[in-house]
Task: structure prediction
Amino acid sequence: MTVLLQIDGVSRYFAGYTALSDVSTAVETGTIHAVIGPNGAGKTTLFNVVSGVLLPSSGQVRFAGVDYTRRKPDRVLAMGIARNFQQVRLFRGLSVLENVMIGRHCRMATGARGLLGLGIFNRAAETQARATAREMLEFVGIGARNERLPGELTLVDQRRLEIARALASDPRLLLLDEPAAGMNPAEVRELTGLIGRIRDRGITILMVEHHMRLVMAAADRITVLSAGRVIADGPPQQVQRDELVIAAYLGKPHAPAHGR
Ligand SMILES: Nc1ncnc2c1ncn2[C@@H]1O[C@H](COP(=O)(O)OP(=O)(O)OP(=O)(O)O)[C@@H](O)[C@H]1O
Ligand SMILES: [Mg+2]
Result:
């Protein structure tokens, strides 16, 4: 097993408030790695550091051995780390298909400057981006809604759309922040299958999720954050039995594998 993402002693302060304190963990290539913890534990802040949205106050992030701590989000994306957002972020005036094509532009020679009618893609690149976008929308299960506007989709389908857009960038590591939020049990089962199929494509997954049934079913490894610190890190069966985790997060010693 090789380490794809190394998070090394990352701390992040906000005006004296400690959101992350000396967080370290390693995400191995080809695995599904979950980050869990109570609200406000620092999970999204950690994703913001890993995706280049936030600079850590101290510590390092390394991708395939390369320190990329100070790289901007667009360069982090081009390097192969894509993400969704806990609060869905889509271009409301563009179609579902166009939203996914935008995910592709980091792979285009023209870069971020021109998009679609704005002159971003040349014709060949646009044809290819369109084909990739269609394939990704099929893959996440919303291929029939290509021409809709994002606002016409349910929130659950908007989450799927964000995953399709992230996949269109051809990432090596996909960061998913609460992908199951708002889903019913059948949708969570479907998402669990989708996450497995993404991993089967060779994409490593780092996922924040409260839905314990999904985490226990899908994750190879779990890092538990509480008040900005790592309180446990290991395989699901080990983390599930950890006294600190039970006390800080799961709350119920004998029934930790419940959905939320
Ligand atoms: N930009 C910011 N400025 C100030 N404080 C922030 C900022 N971002 C996050 N925080 C604070 O850092 C702490 C951790 O927030 P974060 O969003 O990382 O938690 P989380 O574990 O993702 O929580 P949730 O489960 O609710 O999504 C919170 O107390 C939050 O208010
Ligand atoms: Mg969060």
